[in-house]
Amino acid sequence: MAALLVVLVLGIQTILGLAAGITDAVCEQVLHLPSPQLERQPLVLSFINIVAIGAAIALGLYLNRLQFRRAFPIGRITAFQLLGVAVCVLGACVLLSDADNVLRVLLPPPQWLQEVFEELFLSKDRLLARVFMLVLVAPVSEELLFRGIILRGLLSRYRPSVAVTLTALLFAALHMNPWQSLSALFLGILFGWFYWRTGSVALCVLAHAIANGMSILFTLLPLDIPGMTGMPDSTTTVFQPWWLDAAGAGVLAAGFWIFRRATPPASGMASMKTSSQEEVDKN
User: Fold this and answer.
1) Cβ distance 281 to 209 under 8 Å?
2) CA distance 136 to 141
3) Spatial separation of the C-alpha atoms in residues 38 and 36, rounded to whole Å
């Protein structure tokens, strides 16, 4: 069922994306009006994301006979847990920034895709719309689906490591391009670990929002850090300084330690086992 939900999201996104593209073509070639470029509008993409993932969430709740409130527990989030999540995500984003640089060297993206990516996610134009799309819409919708529906279901059938990895692979597949897959896979595993330790979808939403917010912040920081800050040059790839990668690894390790201390394994695993057993007994 998990793969079916992802296919449903991709199908609806494709249909709505084609509708936006056809609208652009009609405006430009038939009506001889300036193209609105709907496919590159963050608010339009936000709407498509909400409709597509919302449909998959609704289907997942229906098939599992779950109430919304029971499927997406908020849980009690402590300041220590939030600190661990923030530190983990910060270290991960620093390392993944350079990992993406390596991936672009090994597998250079086509020029047109690079331009679309820069316009949608890196340009300083339409900043508020991009923040709305990346920091609000994407974290809420994607975490409700992947951690609240898909990972919850897989944890009732597989070992935690397998369930978290399978969910992360589907999460990476949703992003539909190889140049985001590495970051999406690692962050998907990280968010899944957060969920397994706490059972809180809300904590995963916050972690996702922090990660996406970092990607915007890196383009806006008034600092000159090669390979990380500012607008990337699509014609060449610059790697981050070694000390920055070392610092990112240290911050990530510190975040792991803080979060583990803030989430005793007994409470988190007991909560997940109890929830999963209730679903098994019900079925």
Assistant:
1) no
2) 8
3) 5
DSSP 133: I
Answer whether 201's CB lies under 8 Å from 195's CB.
yes
Cβ atoms < 10 Å from Cβ of 214: 18
Indicate the SS3 state at residue 109: coil
The pTM for the full model equals 0.88
**Alpha helix (H) residue ranges in 65-78:** 68-71
Please report the pLDDT score of residue 261 as a whole number: 92
Model confidence pLDDT, tens digit, residues 94-114: 999 888 888 888 888 777 777
- What whole-number distance in Å separates Cα of residue 125 and Cα of residue 131? 11
Where does residue 168 rank: exposed (0-12), middle (13-18), buried (19+ CB within 10 A)?
buried
Report whether pLDDT(51) > 70: yes
166 pLDDT tier (thresholds 50, 70, 90): very high
